[in-house]
Amino acid sequence: MLDMVEAAGRIRALGALPEGGLPRWAVEEPASTGDRKWDTLLATGMAYSIEMIGGTPELWMDNVPPLSEPTMLTSDDPGDEYRARLRAQTPPRFLAKNILTRDRDWTTA
To answer: What's the average model confidence in pLDDT over 73-87?
Structure first.
């Protein structure tokens, strides 16, 4: 999980799409993690980060299927009220994949 957010944060830290494009590690489709949830989280997080710096996500990032139920980055169940607040703060790209997360969850300090 932390590696996934770190990779997305490194892309966003660029501030703009580099003249020569993004490095291979940022755009090549990785092997499946073996878990549909993690594959969707990874692809969507990377796509979102690339969009935030003015790039166009790779097709494989867009083509991952949405999750069957709303999913948060935490395994704790914070309750309906928190889930509703989180949904209101979730960027559209993540909502389309049934992922509840905030923009700030995909940045690094």
So the answer is: 83
